[in-house]
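A reminder before we start the practical. When you read a complex entry, don't treat the lines as separate problems. The point of joint prediction is that each chain is placed relative to the others, so the output describes one connected object in space. Small molecules and nucleic acid strands, if listed, are placed in the same frame. In the example below there are two entries. Take a minute to note the order of the lines before looking further.
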Amino acid sequence: MEIKVNTGILSANEQKAVENRKLFKENGVFAINLMGSPGAGKTTVLEKTIDYLSGKVRLAVIEGDIYTSKDARRIEKYGVPVEQINTGGACHLDAKMVSGALSKFDLTGLDLMVIENVGNLVCPVEFDLGEDQKIAVLSITEGDDKPMKYPLLFRESGAVILNKMDILDFTDVDLEGLRKDIHIINPDIKIFEVSARTGQGIDQWAEWLTDRVKDTVK
Amino acid sequence: MEIKVNTGILSANEQKAVENRKLFKENGVFAINLMGSPGAGKTTVLEKTIDYLSGKVRLAVIEGDIYTSKDARRIEKYGVPVEQINTGGACHLDAKMVSGALSKFDLTGLDLMVIENVGNLVCPVEFDLGEDQKIAVLSITEGDDKPMKYPLLFRESGAVILNKMDILDFTDVDLEGLRKDIHIINPDIKIFEVSARTGQGIDQWAEWLTDRVKDTVK
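Here is the predicted structure of the whole assembly.
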């Protein structure tokens, strides 16, 4: 009974995700789904990325949060179009929520759509939003055992941003072990060592993202 | 339809939680449900707490994880009884899983049961496991906006452990603002400033916990 219901929900989501994907493709928009724990630094990474891409890539943002619009207000200051989705308790975005937000943008004038998911290392991974690429953000302060404990996000993502590298020396994290574990889970994943606070490594990540955007035929 | 199904699931969980609570009460065991993001430091806090309580409080541990038994292996080294629950993908423990684990302990010889939930700031809060007290662990590296963004855990918890205080100076966290936000959400919550790495503040938290355990009639 439970399985049947869950399958139903997933299928409805999949259907909506296909529609979103089609919409992105028709408008030549590259879409990423930014995921990670609460406090991994998703919004700060995004702020620095917007700064870097300013004048080069036309982007918009969908902010997913359970209740507040704190993150959307942070992004608005950068002068990019932003829509807030409040899930009202739900621990992840779904394709229908994203579809509703998409209708409020003029997609023809965009190159990149960044969807920042609810802070959660588990549930969001299972819901396709229609994005081209899942991107994981992991703060090194979360500890080097996290990829093996929560492998699905790392298996599904095209890149992982290791954030808060500026305080690596004040943690017990084994960076080489962490990198190795991530590559065991997903040999093809690109790893970026970043500090959104100091700006370190943002250029490499943003350039990689720009290349992906450029590959999307307008 | 969805609502009906969800209500059904919650009720089944509630029923099992009542059974667990009865079992704890009959055996004079105080039970806590330790919750927080991946990497908040739940297991390290637990290790230091076990060290502190050694010889004073007879405790056992239920470790909740999605796939691995890494945390249970860490706890085993301390010579306390431990049972691992692997949720196999699910983002939270439920009362039925805990009930299964409980059957493997001799509860008559215990004072305290610590249930370490799956790393997740959202979903676990909604599932009563039959515990006496929910305890939140928040790493200060997660940022001072987290209580307002994920209020439910803080509203439901009897205490919050602010972990990784030893690296506060290397973050932009406004500690006073963070404390204030937590108290707005829950004026009665007890806040402990801790570093599980250095041991700072573990004594105050562990003494508070010991007092709760002593209040439980054997």
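Discuss with your neighbour: Chain B touches chain A at residues 2, 5, 9, 37-39, 41, 65-68, 70, 89, 91, 118-123, 139, 141-143, 145-146, 148-152, 164, 166-167, 170-172, 197 (CB under 8 Å). What might explain this?
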